[in-house]
UniProtKB/TrEMBL annotation:
It comes from Panstrongylus lignarius. One of its GO terms (molecular function) is RNA-directed DNA polymerase activity. This is Putative reverse transcriptase. Keywords: Nucleotidyltransferase, RNA-directed DNA polymerase, Transferase.
Length: 123
């Protein structure tokens, strides 16, 4: 991933390239992985998820039926884990899904989330 900005701008191998990602409006690799995880989650939760994914996520509506919002987006409940599992898909997916805003469709979600992550990496 770092070789692309180096090739485009003719940057030497030992130079820093972080500000070139911002100039190209590209995401850093870790934010890019987070963006694809969020997109995958949105598609999985809004459509019929595969059984192996739906088994990893437990929704709050399945735990209790108390709703304070008339049209709440589905939110997931965080499983109890130790530090060994803190980087697992289940934990990342739950934290990510509960931190993003509700969007009516996939295109709007992608645009909003991309601009959010791009502004996060720029600051």
């Amino acid at each position: 991933m770092t070789c692309c900005p180096r090739f485009i701008f003719g940057i030497p191998r030992d130079a820093r390239i972080s500000h070139y990602y911002t100039e190209l409006k590209w995401l850093y690799p870790r934010y890019r992985r987070q963006y694809f995880l969020a997109t995958f989650l949105y598609q999985s939760i809004r459509t019929q998820p595969p059984s192996y994914i739906s088994q990893l996520l437990s929704f709050r509506s399945a735990v209790h039926s108390r709703n304070t919002d008339p049209f709440p987006p589905p939110s997931t409940s965080l499983p109890t884990v130790n530090s060994a599992f803190s980087r697992s898909f289940q934990i990342h997916a739950t934290n990510l899904w509960n931190s993003i805003r509700h969007s009516p469709n996939l295109y709007t979600f992608k645009c909003r989330y991309f601009s959010l992550v791009l502004s996060t990496q720029s600051s």
